[in-house]
Structures are given as C-alpha cells and as structure tokens.
Amino acid sequence: MFKKVLIANRGEIAVRIIRACRELGLETVAVFSEADRSALHVRYADEAYLLGPAPSRESYLRADKILDIAKASGADAIHPGYGFLAEREDFASKCADLGIDFIGPKPSSIAAMGDKGKARATVIKAGVPVVPGTEAVGNMTDDDLLRVAPQVGFPLLIKATAGGGGKGMREVRSLEEMPALLQSARREAEAAFGDGNVYLEKLVEGARHIEFQIIADSHGNVIHLGERECSIQRRHQKLLEEAPSPFLDDELREKMGSVAVKAAQAVDYVNAGTIEFLVDKDRNFYFLEMNTRLQVEHPVTEMVTGVDIVAEQIRIARGRQLSYSQEQVQFNGHAIECRVNAEDPFNNFIPSTGRITHSLLPTGPGVRVDTGVYPGFEITPYYDPMIAKLIVWGETRAQAILRMRRALEEYRIVGVRTNIPFHQTLMDSHRFMGGQFDTRFVEERFSMDAAASESRQAQAEIAAILATLAAHKQAERSAQIVRRNERDTSNWKWVGRWERMHR
Ligand code: MV4
C-alpha cells in the first residue's frame, strides 16, 4: 500500500490533492516548472522538484521526468489531477510498469473512452442512449459519411473521434455544405489531436449539459454521486457549475444515474469519473462522453453529498471498498461553483497577467475557496487562466445564490483583472435565477452591458426578492417534514397539529 504520493499537476488542484493526502497521513511530492518556483502547491508539499522551463510541454507534460522524480523521491503513487497527463493511457501504463500506483482508472478504460466513436459503440451495447448518428467504429471516408448523413438527418454535427472540448466540431444544415465542412473539421482535428477521423451525430438544439459523478472501486462496486449542471459556459469553457441541476427531478435523476453507472461498468471503470449527458427540452437524455479523471467542478458534488471525492480516489487506489453504498448517498441542499479566471469580462474575456498585489478571500458560513495563488504570486500566460474556484452551499438554490452574491462582493483581487464582475452580473440575471438556461445562454442571451447599467436600487430589490424566495422555500420545507404520501391529511392541518404538539 502506497505511502508517498507525487502530484503531477499545479495550481488549485495540486493543493486540493495535497490536502487530501495530508488528512490521510500520506507524504507528498510536488513537481513544478520554472514559472512556478514560488507556487502554493510547491510550498504546501513535503518535497518539491523542478521539472523544467515554463511551457507545459517542457514541464508538466514531461512524463519521463515525472516518472524519474517519482523513483528518485520514493513516491509509490501518482495523482495526475485534471488536464496535462490525466487522460493519457500511455502514462497510466508506464506507471503500472514501474510499480507506481496511478490514482485513476485503468489504461484500458482511458483508451476505451478516449476514442469518442469507440466510446459510443461500447455504451450503445450496454443499452445507454446516445444521440442518433453513425455507429460504425473505425475510420469512415467522406463518401461513407455523405452517404449516411441523410439517414442521420439535418441539422447534424461532425465531431472529431479523438475530440472533446468542441475542437473539430461543425454544424451541418444541408448535404450541399457538408463536403467543405468535413474538410475543415478534419483539418482542425488533425491539428489539435494528430487524428483527423470524424463521426456524425444529429444536432440536439437547446440542450443542457448535465454530468454525473461516478465512483467505482476495484471490487466491482460502482455508484453515482448525482449530477452537476454545467450549461453555463462560453466557447466550451465552463464558467459556473451547480448541484443539483434545477432541471432534474428525483425520478429523472435516478434514471440518468443508473444509466451513468451502466456506462462506467461498460468499460470496467475503477476510480472517479464523469458521464456527460445532453438533456433536451423534452427531458430526453443522451450520453455524450466520459471524462476519465477528477474534474474541476468536483467540489459542488462534495458539498451536497459530503463525500470527499479525492480521499475516495486515494482509498480506491489503495484497494479499499467504497465508503458508501448507493443507498447511503444522501443529497443535501444546493451548491454553486464560480470559476474565477484572470481574464477581462469587459474586454471579450482576454487573459490578464501580472502580479497579484493584494487579495481578500470570502469566508463565512457555506463558503469554500479552492485556490493556488496568493498575494505576491505572478499570473503568467503559460497555463490555464483559472486562479480560484469559489464554491458556496445553501439549503436551497435561492439561498446558495444569495450567498454567492455576498461572497463575490467580499472577494478582492488586486493586480490582475478577473471575471468576478461576470459572475456578479450572472447572479443578478433573471434567467439564471429562474434556472432557465441552456448551453447557448452566455454566448447568445447574456450581456455585461445591460447589467452594468442596472441601478443599485434594482440590485437591492433583487436581493430582497431572493431572500423572500429563500424564506418561502424554508417555510415550505418545514411544513413537509413528513413525506407527502405518508401524510393522512392536508399540509395545513398537519402543521396545526405539529404546532400544538410543540406548544
Ligand atoms: C452536441 C451538441 C448538440 N447535439 N452533440 C460540445 C463539446 C462536446 N463535448 C460535445 N458538445 C456538444 N455536442 C449533439 N449531438 C451540443 C454540444 C455543445 C455543448 C455541449 C456541452 C456543453 C456545452 C456545449 C456548447 C455548445 C455545444
């Protein structure tokens, strides 16, 4: 059983993983680039080793150097975090070859889900619904694709087999425009992944992006920890996630959750993973892809389930059984995460770099901040612009929104521009408050200008409305301490009895 974990990552997620290791009494080894000499994850770990120059390809993507450091430092496990080497089948196998435990899924599961065409075929066999489209595995020629396109139906999407993140994706409205779009999709996929292979899916319009957290142990136990609503994104970059989704009820949650478990089982999945679904207006849901890693937005699931997902990952990698059965997983309240990025929301979200001179973190009831930066740290252009995740918990969605508004107001970061004003505007948007949004919301229906002109008076009114809504929801809940069907009389009579009993 391993005792020393190398964290093959940087920033907030490296710090998050080191925290879990510390609680479990495990020693930690950090790795860092020349730009990250004074980074928080380096200070926080027991030991730290230089990888190389700032660019990822010369540092955090150097699998060979990371494995050398693991051997030299006596680390007997590696946690890859997200991004970088997290979903590289060859890296996971190399760890195994060297007798180092990879805290993540088996290489074969990474490979099976990494090829999106293969993933589709695999989950279809397991009875998981996918968007209608091509079902053949392997390379299809343009002629093949043009022949089946009318059967799939228009509008459709060309997607890259090696894909993810919307790269190499093209919307096709008619057969006539398809040859040119095939060519540009293949070119983009080839440039991004070194693989120009593509497949087709019918376009699902106005869909929400809802994903399920899975955890699975090496003894065959697989459970889900509910869903995260991830529709608030811009150019395929998520900006806010919440749990539960305001769009699901218990029945649909149970149905999608058991399908998510089936999809994970289809690739013999072990450790933490995520099943992504599209959910259309009529509540039809379709498997999109599986992310075979810990995700950025895992904290919202932790907040509503009480499960420490990173600690579970470590326990699973040590060969232990899951700490929970599906029945033991209870959902409590509502959590929202805002990704705080060093970018200017008033200037087309262009990245902002520089030294953070001052910062004041929000705290207080129901507030969690996961960050990898501190005053004095310099934000460089080499890595992802995300500098912190602000996560809040509330008993209801309305209370969580009120808390997020309060926490965003408390948050001070001086030295770089951040997207905090974007999140503040979002918290005041009626559509967001009402849960009425899909994946097009930020790009098509949201504007920073409209909000900038809104008066403070209007903002105060919104706060009052939300507070009333939160209070109402709470009153409603206290009137429903006994479940609806188990009660033999009306809510009002029941509340009367309850009050008499407690006089
Ligand atoms: C889709 C879709 C509509 N119909 N597939 C975008 C990235 C990739 N992971 C899958 N994506 C989509 N696939 C069908 N058949 C719409 C999207 C999509 C999307 C999905 C999730 C989150 C944000 C999105 C934004 C635009 C489009």
Give structural attributes:
503 residues, alpha+beta, Rossmann fold, Dna Ligase, domain 1, D-amino Acid Aminotransferase, Chain A, domain 1, five-stranded parallel β-sheet, 18 helices, 37% helix, binds ligand MV4
Report on this structure.
The protein is of the alpha+beta class. It has three domains: 4-103, 3-Layer(aba) Sandwich (Rossmann fold), CATH 3.40.50; 132-202, ATP-grasp fold, A domain (Dna Ligase, domain 1); 209-446, 2-Layer Sandwich (D-amino Acid Aminotransferase, Chain A, domain 1), CATH 3.30.470.20. Helices cover 37% and strands 23% of the residues. The chain has 18 helices and 22 strands. It has helices spanning 11-23, 40-44, 63-73, 89-97, 107-114, 116-125, 142-152, 178-193, 250-266, 298-305, 309-317, 397-410, 420-427, 430-433, 441-445, 448-452, 456-478, 491-501, and strands at residues 4-7, 27-33, 47-52, 77-79, 101-102, 156-160, 170-172, 198-202, 208-216, 222-234, 237-243, 271-279, 285-291, 334-341, 343-344, 350-351, 354-355, 358-360, 367-371, 378-379, 386-394, 412-414. The strands form six sheets. An eight-stranded antiparallel beta sheet has the order 13-12-9-10-11-14-21-19, sandwiched between helices. The longest helix has 23 residues, at 456-478. The protein is globular and about 65 Å long. The model is unreliable at 481-486 (pLDDT under 50). The site of ligand MV4 has 17 residues, from strand 8 and strand 13.
